[in-house]
Each structure stands twice: as C-alpha cells, then as structure tokens.
Amino acid sequence: MAFFTAASKADFQHQLQAALAQHISEQALPQVALFAEQFFGIISLDELTQRRMSDLAGCTLSAWRLLERFDPAQPQVRVFNPDYERHGWQSTHTAVEVLHHDLPFLVDSVRTELNRRGYSIHTLQTTVLSVRRGGKGELLEILPKGTTGEGVSQESLMYLEIDRCAHAAELNVLSKELEQVLGEVRVAVADFEPMKAKVQELLASVDNCQYAVDADEKAEVKSFLEWLVGNHFTFLGYEEFVVRDDADGGHIEYDPDSFLGLTKLLRAGLTAEDLRIEDYAVSYLREPTLLSFAKAAHPSRVHRPAYPDYVSIRQIDASGKVIKECRFMGLYTSSVYGESVRVIPYIRRKVAEIERRSGFQAKAHLGKELAQVVEVLPRDDLFQTPVDELFNTVMSIVQIQERNKIRVFLRKDPYGRFCYCLAYVPRDIYSTEVRQKIQQVLMERLQASDCEFWTFFSESVLARVQLILRVDPKNRIDIDPLLLEKEVVQACRSWQDDYASLVVESFGEANGTKVLADFPKGFPAGYRERFAAHSAVVDMQHLMNLSEKNPLVMSFYQPLGQSAGQELHCKLYHADTPLALSDVLPILENLGLRVLGEFPYRLRHANGREFWIHDFAFTAGEGLNLDIQQLNDTLQDAFVHIVRGDAENDAFNRLVLTAGLPWRDVALLRAYARYLKQIRLGFDLGYIASTLNNHTDIARELTRLFKTRFYLARKLTAEDLEDKQLRLEQAILTALDDVQVLNEDRILRRYLDLIKATLRTNFYQPDGNGHNRSYFSFKFNPHLIPELPRPVPKFEIFVYSPRVEGVHLRFGNVARGGLRWSDREEDFRTEVLGLVKAQQVKNSVIVPVGAKGGFVPRRLPLGGGRDEIQAEAIACYRIFISGLLDITDNLKDGALVPPLNVVRHDDDDPYLVVAADKGTATFSDIANGIAIDYGFWLGDAFASGGSAGYDHKKMGITAKGAWVGVQRHFKERGINVQKDSISVVGIGDMAGDVFGNGLLMSDQLQLVAAFNHLHIFIDPNPEPASSFAERQRLFDLPRSAWSDYDTGIMSAGGGIFSRSAKSIAISAQMKERFAITADRLTPTELLNALLKAPVDLLWNGGIGTYVKASSESHADVGDKANDALRVNGNELRCKVVGEGGNLGMTQLGRVEFNLNGGGSNTDFIDNAGGVDCSDHEVNIKILLNEVVQAGDMTEKQRNQLLGSMTDEVGGLVLGNNYKQTQAISLAARKAYERIAEYKRLMNDLEARGKLDRAIEFLPSEEQLNERVAAGHGLTRAELSVLISYSKIDLKEALLNSRVPDDDYLTRDMETAFPPMLVSKFAEAMRRHRLKREIVSTQIANDLVNHMGITFVERLKESTGMSAANVAGAYVIVRDIFHLPHWFRQIEALDYQVPAEIQLALMDELMRLGRRATRWFLRSRRNELDAARDVAHFGPHLAALGLKLDELLEGPTREGWQTRYQAYVEAGVPELLARMVAGTTHLYTLLPIIEASDVTGQNAADVAKTYFAVGSALDLTWYLQQISNLPVENNWQALAREAFRDDIDWQQRAITISVLQMTEAGESIEARLALWLEQNHSMVERWRSMLVDLRAATGSDYAMYAVANRELLDLALSGQSGL
Asked: How far from 1241 is each of 224, 1247, 1353, 1355, CA to CA, in Å?
C-alpha cells in the first residue's frame, strides 16, 4: 500500500526536501538536497511510495550523518535497527550503511555476503559521490555526480534494508563480517596491477623453460597468458609453492613472500592438516606440465560467489622435475563464457585435436554436431580435462544428441576436491525435482559436502546440467560410471512414469490412455511424495466409481511397515467440493476413532471438474482392539452413510466398532433410543448410547431379537418363532443379571420391552427400487410398554429418520385426528399426547375415536427462506405419511391385503386416516397423493380437506360450530346475537380461519379489541355495520394483518398498536370501555387488561393459552410465550367465552370461570365442527368410492356431487354442535340435584379404566362434597368432558354388541349422511365399510344428546341390563313417541319463548324417554325387537295420544289442563304444550297397550279403564307423591323407581281385572263399579291407607313400602276374585 503520492521523481524530491527542512538548517539544505537526489537516484517512484515519507527522510539524514565526517582509510559499516526513540525514524527491516572510498566489486561483494548469510535484500541504494573533504575528513561539499579534479575524492555509499535481525549480537557479527569482506576487496584491488605484472614475468619464464617443450605449445601458453591479462580474468590472488613428500602423500609449502592479493589473507595461519595433499595430487603436481588448471577449495567472497579458478605455470628443470608452481587465483570474466572456443588460446588446440581425431567433415552433419557440442561444453571442462578424456566425453555426447535418454559424465578434479558431472536429461521430463534427484544420487554416492549446478537449455531435446560437487580428497571412492548412470536414470524415472505404465496395465490400453488424458496433470506433488504410483492407480479406480448415487467412496488401509493396531489410515474420495474437516472429524470420532492428521489432495479433470482425496490417519479409541480388515466394509458403509446424512452422527456409531454392528442396526437402536426419549424415560441419548457401548453383547442380542421377530419370522413357523424368541429373550435376561448399574439395567430392559411391544416395522421392507428405506417406522402396542405417560393409546406408530421424526397415536382401530408440524423436537410426543386427549373427547360426536400425529423436521435449512423451509417440511411430511402407510393393511376388492414384507404381530388393521393441523393446513392433497400411489383403499378419503374435499376455512365450519355454542350461551341469557349488538374481545386476526369466520358470523358485533402475535387492535365504540364490512374485506385478502385495517372508520380513542412498542397511551375511551385506570401500559399489560375487560364475549381464534385457574402456576400451563399476559378464570369479566381455537383456556381455568357465572363449554365441544366435517367427508368418500369403483359413477361426477352437498354436510355438522351444546345446557340445569348420578357415572368409568379423573381435571369425591356444600354442581366445562366420555363409552359398547347388526337399528346410519345420498345410495350405504361404527356413533350421539349424560348409567343400574340393551330400548321409545319430532318443535321456538321454558319442555320429554325405556327393559327383558315393537306400539300411541282429553278424568285431567295452559300462555304451540304436559299419561299408555294385548280389548277402552281405575283409587295422586320423594342416595333412587314400577304393574293388573268384568255389560263405568263392589273391603283398606298418607307430615320410604304392599294385595285380590 502506498503511504504518499508523488507525480514524479522531482515531485518526490520536493516533498522530501520539505520533510528534511524540519530537521536541518537552511544553509545545509541545498547540500542535503543534492545528496538526496543522488542517494535516491535510480530507485523507482513505485518503490519509494511504499515507504513512509518520514522514514525516507530519516534514512537520508542517517546516511548524511555518516558522510559528514569520514576517513577514507577507515571504511564505515553500520548495521542497526532504526526506531523512533533512538534514530527518529523506523523501518521494519534492519538497515545496513556502508561508506567506502570507491573501488570495484564493493557492491557485488557486500550483496554476495548478505545472500550467503541468508538475508533477503529489500532495498538497495548505492551511489558514488564526488566530494571534497577537509584535513580532518570533515565534509566540505558534495559535487554533482561524476565531478573529478584536484581534491575531489570518489566515495561509494551503500544503503540496504535486509531481513530484520532481532539480536544485538547478530548485528555485531554481520557488521564485522562485512568489514572483513571489504578488507578482502581492498587487498584484491590493491594487488591487481602487481598480479598483472607477475603474468608478464612468467611470460618470460616460459621462454626460458629448460624442459624440452614443443615450441607450439610454448607459444600457445604464452598466448593464453596474454589473453588472460587482456581483461579475461579477474585476478584475486597469486602464490608460489613447492610440494614436499610425506609418508602417505605430501604437503604444500608456500612461499609467503610471493603472496599477492587474497592469498595474503587466505594462507595465513594454515595448519599441517590444511597443507596436506593426497598422493594422487602429489603425482599430479609433479607432472611436468607447463600450464594447468584447477578450482579453489572455497567460494570467493569478492565479486562473485563462485569457486575461483586456479591457473598455474610450473617451473620445470631440464630433467622434467617441477621446481615450483606459480599459481593465480581469480574468476574468468563473463566474456569468456560468451567467446567461441576457437579463439580462446590453449582450449582451441584441444578442440582442433578432437576434431582431427573424430575424422568428421567440418561441413557434414556430424562435424557440425561436434562443433556445437564443444562450443557449449562448460569452459571448466575444456580447461581442465586432458584431451584423451575430453575426446571420449565429446564423442559420447555427440552420439546421444537428439535421443531421448539420460546420460551422465563424471570427471574428478586432480586435487581430489571436486567432482564434475555433466548430466543430459530429456527436456520434457526435466524439472527442479529431477535435478534434485540427480544431485541427491551423486551426493550420496560421492559423499559430497556441497554442490553447485548450472542448467543449460538449447534447441536440443536434451537439457544439460553441470554439477560441481565438493568432495573430501581423503575419500577414495571407486565409482563405476555405468552403475552410477543407471542409478541416476532410475532416480529420474518419475513417479509419473511409473503411474502411467501402471494405469495402462490396470485399465487396459484404451481406458488407461483415456484416464491419463482425462487427468492431464495427474496427482499433485504432495500426493506423489506420500504414496507410491500403484496406490494412485487404486485411488483412481475409486474416483472412477464416484457417481450421483455414490458421491462418496472410502477405503481403509494400513501403511506398510506398521504393525497392526498402531495407526490406521483411510482415504475418502469425493467429487466437486472438498469435505470440510469440521464435518468429517466428529463422524470419525463418534465411530470411536481418534484422528491424528488429514491430508487433502485435489485432482483436476480435463473438463474442469475437481476430485478430492482426503487421507486420514487415526488410531482406534481407548481399549479397542480392532481387526481393520474384518470391519473394513462395515466401517466404510457406516461412514459413507453418515456423511450422506442417511445415519446420524452421534455416540451410537461407536457400536459399529465395539459391537461390530452394521450402520442400519445401529440406526435401529438409535431410533428406539429416540423413542425412549419421547416417552420420558429420563435418560439422555448420550447415556443410552454409552450404556449400549458398555454392554455390546446385549446390544447385539437385542438387534438379533428384532431381526428374529421381523425378518426371520417370515420363514419360521409360529412355534419355531416363539421358541427362538424365548431363547433370545432368556439370553438377554441372563446377561442383564450381570449389569451392575441400575440405570443401565433399566435402559436395556426398556429396549427389550420396546422390541417385544413392536407389532410391525418397515425396517426390512425394501422400497420400490429394492433398496433399504431411508426411514424406519414401528407400530407399537403401547399397553406392553411399562411406565408410558398416560393416557395410553391403543396403537402407536413411530417414524424415525435423521431428517424427520414423528408419532401417530390412535385410541382405537377406527380413529381420526390431524397431523401437526411440531417444533418441539425434544418432546413432540408429549405435545401430541396432550392434543390426542382433547381429540379423543372432541371425536365423541363422530365415528372414529381420537388419534393425533405430529412430526418434527430435524434438518430445516438454517437461515432458509419461507419457501425452502416449507419445501423441507413437505418432504418430511411425505416421509412421515409413507412411514405410516408402509405398515398399514390395505383392502382390495373387499379382501384384506397385509403390507408387503412386513411381519404382523397384531390383527387386521386397515383404517388409517389423517387430517390437517397446525402447519399442515395445505398438505392434504400431498397425503392423498401418497395414499393413491400406495394403492391405499381409502384413496383421497385418507386425508380430509384436500382439493376434492371440504375446505373448512371456506365453509367456516369450525367457527360456525363454535358460534352455535356462543348463540346458546347468549340465548340462555336472553340475548339474540344475530340481532342484538354485543361487545367482543378477540384473539387472532382476520386472516385466520376460526377468528376470521367467527367475527363474520353476525353483523351486529362490536369488535372492541383484538390481538395476534404482532398487533393490538382497539376500537372502543365501533359502528357494527362498517366494521363488519371492513372485517369482511380483510378476510377476503390473500394475506392480511391488523395493520391493513382501515383506521379511518375506527372510533375515537382506538388504534392499531405494535406488540413490540415500548408502551401504549391509554385513551379516555379505552379506559371507559375496558375499565382501565392507568394512563400508559406496556403492550403486555394492555393485553392482560383486555382479557379481563367487562365485555360480552371473549372469542378465541388464536394459538396460545390465555386463561388458567388461580390454583395453577404458569409453568403448569406450558405456554411460556403468554405467561406475562395470562389471566385467571375468576378474573374474566366477560359473560361468555367462545373457544374456536384449541387450548385457549386450561380446563381448570374454564371450571373457575363457570363457577363464577361465566358461560363457556370447552374447546373440544366448541370447535368439534372441523373434525366432524372431516369425518363426514371421509365416510361419504368411502361410500362414493365404492360406487366409483363399481363403475356407476365417474371420479368427476363424484367430485361434483361432493361439492353440491357442501351445505348439507355443514348442516349435519352444525346440527351435532347444536344438539351437543343443548345437551350440556340440559345437564347443567340439573347438575346440582343430580350430582349423585354423576358421581356414580365417574366411579363406574374409573372402575372400568375408561376415565382418569386427574388427567381430565374432574373433581375428586372430596372436591365434589365441597362443591355441593357451596351449592354448586358440576360446571359446563366438566359436563363437556363427561358427555364426551359417556358417548365414547356407549359407542364402544354398541360396537361390541349386536345393535349395529339389527336391520331396524341400522337405519340410524342414514342420519350421518346428507338426505340426497340416502335416497340415491341406500343400498350401497348398507354395505359401507364402517356401517357398524357409524350406526354405533349415531345411536350413541342421539341417545346422549336427547336423554342426558347419565341416562345409560341409571338404567343399567336400575334394570341390570347392558348399555346395548338400553340403547336398543331407547331407539324403540324414541320412534314410538316420535321424540325427535317433538324436540325439533321445541328447538323451533328459539328466541320465541324463554330458553328456560324450552329446557323445561325438553326435560319433560327426557323424563318420558327415561321412564318408557325402563318400562321396555323391565317388561320386555331379553325379548326386545326394535322393528316389531315400533310397528306394534307406534300406531296405538299415536291414536291414544290425541285422545288424552277424552281419556283423562277428574283431578288428573284438571292437573294436565292447568299445565298445558301455562305452556300455551308462555308462547308454546298448543299441540306441543298438550303433548309435553301429558308426558306422564303418555308413558302410561305403554302398560295400557300391553293390557290391551293381554285382554284382546280395544286399546282405547283399556286406556279409559286404566285412567278410571287410577282416578277411582287415587293412584295418580299416589304416584305423584312417590315421584316427589326426596332421594338422598342411590338406594333410595332405586327404591323409588321400584315403587313406580310396582304401581304401573298393579294398575295394569287391576285394569285387566276390571276389563274382565264382562257380566257388568259393555260400559267401562259399570265394570269398574262392579269390581270396586266385589273387592269392597280391600278397596276401603287401601283408601284408609291413603288417608293416613295424606295426614303424615314427613315422607318416609317405609310408609310407601307398606302402602305398595296394600296395593299389591288389592290387585291380587282383584285377580283372585275373577
């Protein structure tokens, strides 16, 4: 990065001067400026701007200080680390400043020394300054560059920045060394001329040589020396020496006087060892050769860092003995290396000789080839090699030219200190790596200590490397050149060569060549260093196996030379992206492997695609002794599936190694563990995993038991299977005895329980492609699982996969309920269990019992958008649905078809339906699509509410159903919500189904406040009509929020507030409307106040629990989000709560609200419309799908028909809501008086295990006694629970009886279908798959809705008959008295007469039904036949019922008339009033008709007689007295019923007796008179008894027991008198 900017060097200088001006005087500035210009002379602007201006000024001043005083005799070297404190400037590097009088080689030598010591040079500024100095060396002036003249000296200034030296010692050493180098430069330069003069001397001595040397040679030597002086040699030193013999060689003796240049420094202080030479060197030095060449033993520190060359002239006497050697040391100048060998003296003779010997024609190809070889041969070789050796080498080189092979030529230096090597290598394989390999072989073989190399490239196909190896003269190594060459060739045979040949060998030539072409760059260097070529071939095969389906391959290996159990390795192969280490490490560690290291390698395909190989080294975890070969496949398989995400990455995976289990078996154990977590076993998954790892034998046995139950079972007979299972179970139990830790024992036993409780699984069921499924589903019998949280369902399916988990709980074979997208991964089963409990009571109105499902997507995209999250949830939903259907029976052509490859340990179970719930509102079509793919018999009846189903929101069915409840509460308070304006506080928003539809149920509503999770809507005094229209507008928008509401139409003091606001100002209107006193409230405080507002209706259409009981804590509620705003039931000031949404209040909260006079039912009563509608849809679809399959209707026609019946279905559903809330009102009316009946009902249900009071929050006996003492009975909320339980119990009883098979009773199923279907498809309806269930449901609902919650219980107790008998008798009574007709008449009086009167009228009808049913049960015990009895009694009753006027007489008639007149005055139609007022007498018609049957008399006469007997004997009054008896306990109730039954029987008996008095004539009166006369004494006795009874003050059961006895005597005497 640049620290400043400058337009040009001049601009820079200008800025620098400005910076310098702050530090120096004005007078000095021009000089410093001139200096600075020269100092930064050749440095580029770019480089300068990379440094701070202050630092540039600092280094300029620092150099200037050095210049200010200087003695040329004492060169200056400063090495320091500039810092602000000491120097006023800084640099990240170490600064080196050198000032020296100008000499050649200074800069080269300093740079060489720094490089040699390993310092990088970051900045180098060098300049030669022309200066004038004073006598003491002080600087007088700096002159322009290049100025010469008297008194002007040239001084070289160097400034360098090098790698920072941290220690002071290092700085000192460096400055000393640099001073030394400068000293060497000075010495060499000083003696340069003397050395040249020495050459001249020696030229003369050549001529004077006494030894007989050829004149030509002498001339050539002289030419050479002259050539040398002619600027071809940089002289560094000169010496003369003689050789002395020693025992094992010799030593050199220098003449110190001869030293010139560097030899003065280098030869000082040599030891005897330094001077010693080997015998072969002695021989060489004794050879009478005039001119010889060699290399110096140490690199030069002056000029260039090369080994200097020696040029020697030997003084030889006449006998050929060497007298002394005169030796120059120096470096050939660069021109030598460029000159042709033909012009260099001495060498040119060798070249001519070689050409002569070769015999090649100069112009011919080989001649040219030879000339070229010689020309480029290293000069060292030409100088030093004897001609014979040189000839052989040159000829060999000529022969290998243009042949792609490696050749090596070796030559040893005569002193034995160097080996010279020429290596020829084909250019295409030459690389630094190859050169290093050659170097390595040579250095090893020659035991060299140092090596220098030069590489030469030409047009030739061969590259040449010249290597000079420094060897120890003492090591006499005998080298076989051929062997050495072979070794070099082998070393240069690249890994790539081996790999290429192996690939072709393994893959075959065609494929092999393709593979090599596909990966042109092959394997990376790091890989080649670690692995042999044959490993690469194996790895390439693995890479070739990668595919879409197989994106990851793994292989284990043990590196050679390692003993087993030490270190293991595995390679992972993967395409496109590298595997993140953070993903892979935890997987390997969870598999029980400790990772020691990882090495990734990338290969690139010719098409640009990348492939990755990851090499992992690891050891097995503590205490694991593994046979990797044996576990290789299992481990690989496990790893690959974990990486893919098919299996989870956790501690269970250790079982792959510890227990040797395949990954799916581990996943099975994990699935069970995750289920254990859901059923609250109380141990976390880590502990369960470690338990299994601690007891791998048991873990293995458990998987074996599972396999036996669900896989081997297919091939075994039932006995064999039983036997095998028992043996395995026994083995597990025996092993469990050795488990010391109690918790571990508990976990393992629970595993055993779960496997035994598993009824079905898809674990061994392949998918459509024959592969294992990616998810598991298990069907449990929950009653076999100990300590399961209650309530315990009948069946449960648990679906598990790493992506999703879910449960489906069913409380019976035919059960329904929605599937929820839950976000409670930790305890979604607990959530579903709570919901299914509510579903169970809600479903009392429909055919199926309760069911509920929930699934949790476990891998929702982090930070994903709404669509991505939705897509993943749908994928999870699909898995969940598939998991359910995989193990569910199917029906085909009426026959049951079990699921394929599923062992069933339970009975046939084909009924499975689902529905939408929170989060899955739009998923029904998806579920139906899956069901249709599976060929499931229900087809699109599987999930209700799909595109060919009833859209609940469009129908508004749930809200309408809840509104029915609201209407009733207000009707009973004298308000018609459709006409009268009521104030409402709502929870939810207009986009919601229940809230939106609910607040459009009446255009008279005043919605004064509402809130959802975002906004608070407040409109204190709304105008009903305009606000209704605005709500409608919002509802019709595709998505809306309260913020879309038109605030322009809102009343004063209102507004829409954000729930995230800090506080909200409370207007005067708000204060008045909501009874708030504060001026400001936080949103939460305001919501709390709104919930307590004194309004008419609180309508809940939202999610959350807002009301609890004061006895409950917020934690008990389990809805943390609303803790701050939740209120208690006794704080609610609204009159009515409408529960459209689920769980808006806790059950105890409702009870508290009811006890404080509030009107509410429960959520499952209010919002049962939805589930009821869905059930109608499913039952209609099952009916019509049969018709479609039979070919009598097309799918399109079916869908049209379904659509056309929307309103009828809605009508049926709302009818159920109406009847059920009416039944609750009827029950609530008498809840206090009838408390004992409810006690007995609850006790009976509890005793039979059908009810758990605590779970349903029903009061205990003690609490009930307190209730009664306070004057309260059960509340509507509690009666809501009991009405549901009573229906559920009755449904079950009927289903298990013959009632649904009775042709007459079966007609009740028609009430479950729209009338248009009944008329069209009556035949198909009788064949409906759920006929029995529908019949049972309809009768149970009809009976409980009309006769009350405790009806069946009372009659069971008083008659000892079964619930089914009671229901059968009820249907007869219902139909003969036409009770539904009369009920409808009363219901039609809504808002015409007070609700209390309607309820009173219905109460009369209920009493009639109750008594008549008991009469049938008692008088027709075990011989009821609905069709026969209805046909017989119906017409008689119809006829007699209209004649009450004629039949009744005396006070009885008067009483009847008074009652019916009162009804008529209250607004009841006359016919209805007469009927209801006469229910007691209508009941009496039953024994009358029976008497008519016995006597054969006309029924009307019998009736007349009957009533006449009643009047004559005052039986009507007597019966009234008995009915008025107070009941304090069950015995008294039973006694009272017995008394009434006795009177009925006796009055009938007397009537028959009277009718048989034929002698008295036809007149009834005459017959009666005769009978009274004949039994005069007994009649009188009876009448006196009545006088006593009238006179008695108290009412005592004993009195009536005696009286009844008297009446019996009278009846019997009457008979005996016949």
From this structure: 134, 10, 6, 11
